Amino acid sequence: MMELHFDSKKGIWAEDPDVVDKLSKNFFGRQKGRVVLLDIEEALYLIGFQNAECLHKGTPMSFNELASHYAASEPRLMVKYSAYRDWRDRGLVLLRAESVKKTGDKASFKHYPEKKTDYEKISATARWYPDSMYSVMESESEAKRLFNGWWFGQYGIYKQDRGNLLKLDFLETLFLAKHMDVTITGADGKRLAPEELLRQVTSKREYTRQLYDVYEDWRLAGFVVKTGFKFGSHFRIYFPGASPAKEGKWIHSQHVLHVFPKEQRMLISEWARIVRVAHSVKKTFILAVPNISAKDLVDYPADYIAYRRKKWQGQLVRETPDDKPRYLLAAVSEDEHIGGLELASLLKRAEAKSLELILSITDRETSVTYYLLKRVLLSDSDYDYYEIEWHKP
């Protein structure tokens, strides 16, 4: 049996030479002289799964007795322990973030095929319906031109060859008024300026400004941006050149985008559900965190530096602290809240260390799911975008 020791002032350690050697070879704890000092989650894992026994003044301690000594100073101990246990069960190494000084390789970025677009001015008029938050264009020629050429609005009925009106949602209406000089009129027939349209929508729909800023950002980069309602997200994204007028089968989007304002907080379970819906229909999920500045960032805890496997002599072997670290891992539970600001802060911390960010989500059955986040670079953009994908270590 592996023998550990606990003292409320000294912490947890192993001193038997054979135990010290075994722990050191498997990257548990920190060797100090002839002993190995252990973090609480390491000790709990050894007790639970490595046949270890922890003694306090010669008396064995149970799992709960030892954990209780740390419950006040480590309020999220069980969430962190679940992530630690699952990673270690996979034969991989992870260490507390503050104990690792090495940085990783440069974090990877994604580049999508942009096509900077200068939208031409169009002499057309649409009537605005403020309570419905969309506008209608009756000019058949201009409506078809906007729909077939740039895929603005919905001409006729969705996926049906019926009707000759162009319906434009509030984001499309704003964009056309601002960038293509389309005239938007109210019930009195007077022209509405983009600022007035924005004011009207903002009074009815929260986070209108953030939604529009992200919509405009991607449209100006040449992407087609449509509603993502059917997929539980704000937008679905098509690469430049996509059009509903092309012959052949219907074009399907490959990406969905969700805007997560820095002021908003969301249950982890709700956030994860949005990502899962996207993945279930084989779409890449992109998270937008707009309007974040350096002064906004907060000290949100990142728990672990995690290592993965690498190829060596034709085989996969686990990486160790002698290698460069791969991931910054934040452990959360399905019943916690996380905000756009906290998530952006974690992402910035990972980038500063040239690491990729992994969220480890523990559900109520203590099953752990991992999500990997990679930054998407959009030219001339002041906003942060990240791909989020399910990850298996």
Walkthrough of the structure:
The mean pLDDT is 91. This protein starts with a strand and ends with a strand. Strand 14 (224-227) and strand 15 form a beta hairpin. It has three domains: 2-73, MutS, DNA mismatch repair protein, domain I, CATH 3.40.1170.20; 76-117 and 221-393, Trna Endonuclease, Chain: A, domain 1 (3-Layer(aba) Sandwich); 118-205, MutS, DNA mismatch repair protein, domain I (3-Layer(aba) Sandwich). Helices cover 27% and strands 30% of the residues. The chain has ten helices and 26 strands. The protein has 393 residues and is α+β, with helices and mostly antiparallel strands. Strands 7, 8, 14, 15, 16, 18, 19, 22, 24, 25 and 26 form an eleven-stranded mixed β-sheet that branches. A six-stranded mixed β-sheet has the order 3-4-2-1-5-6.
Number of domains: 3
Helix content: 25-40%
**Which percent range describes the beta-strand content?**
25-35%
Q: Could you please say which CATH topology of the largest domain applies here?
A: Trna Endonuclease, Chain: A, domain 1
